[in-house]
């Protein structure tokens, strides 16, 4: 038995190291190949950098006059569920609820330079929105079985109609005039 041990070599660690290095290389290649990050192409110019604010506060916009709304300040223009008006003080607007579910009410509760707050009621549904800052606003999607809000930087142009929903957009104005859109399907 002693002579047999002399001829046996201890197991080599070389195959284990080779296997480990191969797996590491394959993992790196697979990760790179499956990455969603676009790789630079020498034939294409580099993409323009994205400028994003470093704070959560909106960037001030230059002061400009509020756009002239299609229906001026006529709250009565909204009774059919389609209007674009300017408001400078609290108002209440009644209009058709989505899917012929009766009447809905939009109550603007606060308007001032770069700010607006409002509440929408339709049946048992209630939604509130508010925004502060230049170019800020809220969109409310009012449906017969609920509603949803989204607030932030908005373009003051008329929102697109949505099937089965009344879209309400309220945008702040630097001069204390808020722009309201009500868009029915």
From TrEMBL:
Biased composition (Low complexity): 27-42
Signal sequence range: 1-33
Keyword Signal: yes
Compositionally biased tracts (Pro residues): 59-68
Keyword Acyltransferase in annotation: no
Stretches the record annotates as Disordered: 27-78
Domain of life: Bacteria
Name of the protein described by the UniProt record: Secreted protein
Species, as recorded: Streptomyces tendae
Organismal lineage: Bacteria, Bacillati, Actinomycetota, Actinomycetes, Kitasatosporales
């Amino acid at each position: 038995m002693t002579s047999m041990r002399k001829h046996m070599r201890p197991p080599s660690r070389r195959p284990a190291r080779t296997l480990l290095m191969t797996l590491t290389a394959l993992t790196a290649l697979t990760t790179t190949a499956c990455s969603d990050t676009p790789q630079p192409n020498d034939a294409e110019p580099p993409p323009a950098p994205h400028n994003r604010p470093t704070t959560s506060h909106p960037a001030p916009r230059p002061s400009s006059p509020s756009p002239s709304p299609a229906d001026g300040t006529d709250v009565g223009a909204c009774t059919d569920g389609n209007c674009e008006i300017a408001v400078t003080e609290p108002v209440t607007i009644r209009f058709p609820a989505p899917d012929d579910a009766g009447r809905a009410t939009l109550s603007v509760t606060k308007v001032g330079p770069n700010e607006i707050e409002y509440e929408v009621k339709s049946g048992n549904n209630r939604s509130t929105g508010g925004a502060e800052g230049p170019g800020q606003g809220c969109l409310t999607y009012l449906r017969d079985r609920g509603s949803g809000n989204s607030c932030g930087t908005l373009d003051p142009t008329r929102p697109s109609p949505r099937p089965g929903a009344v879209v309400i957009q309220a945008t702040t104005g630097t001069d204390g005039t808020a722009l309201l859109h009500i868009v029915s399907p």
